[in-house]
Amino acid sequence: MSKVLIATEKPFSAEAVAEVKGVFQEAGFEVEVLAKYPDHSDLVNAVSDADALIIRSDKVDREVIEAGKNLKIVVRAGAGYDNVDLEAASEKSVVVMNTPGQNSNAVAELALGMMVFMNRNGFTPVAGSELRGKKIGIHAYGAVGRIVGLIAKGFGMKVYAYDPFVDPVVIKNDGITCEETVESLYSKCQYISLHIPVTAETRSSVAYDLLASMPEGATLVNTARKEVIDEDGLKKVFAERKDFRYLSDIAPNCREELEANFKSQVLFTPKKMGAQTAEANLNSGVAAARQIVNFIEKGDTTFKVN
Ligand code: 3PG
Fold this sequence. Notes:
This protein is of the alpha/beta class.
């Protein structure tokens, strides 16, 4: 009997866990849940007899891969898999998958929600500002970026996007202006919503020059990863511009410094919660479970990333 470990430091909703367990029970798999665990060593210990592993942002490093003596597959219930050591997994012939698109709506709603919250001064009676008629630039037009575009259009915003990996026709067909360069996106748009993954190429790529080029009222919204921001460049922009704002679901390393000096210009969630909705938990958890069953029973490697 195959054994699956569901290891989520940030727990799925009870409903999602029940549905995920149901998928495995139907397939005759054994399931263990390790939620809200206090230490990485708990994951290392728990994975020892698992054939399959479901995770969220949980760190699956070489130690975890090597501890999983029976491990055949790791599914990241979510989009970004920068928390998984793909090299170590491939060396041990462990398949790694993600569940693209399953939590995108939740993240996109948070991006716009943070903008509204900030524009209305944290829902206080101080006169705020509206999104209607403002320009928003979507940096990377994947599953989340596309929904951000849809919602932003609903707000009456002028929507632009830059993504060298997406056919411009796709962007134009969604009624969005396609920018040919990242520089033109940032210099044109007061709002930038970030949706790039963290890779060797994108790490620290959102740097001073791009941020400084943004128009008056510049607002950077990050529901992607903190690592894509060059924090020295970010701090320099804050030091120079009173109008610059940074809203992020993944607080930067310099969080305390920014909050101490530029309190009214920043908004950071206490813990990454873009994908933390009942719907996203259910969609990504069940997708991960089905992918595991299909892989173990039929060898289906759809969504393999290594
Ligand atoms: C993702 O990459 O899917 C998001 O960052 C969500 O991460 P989480 O599962 O830790 O909430």
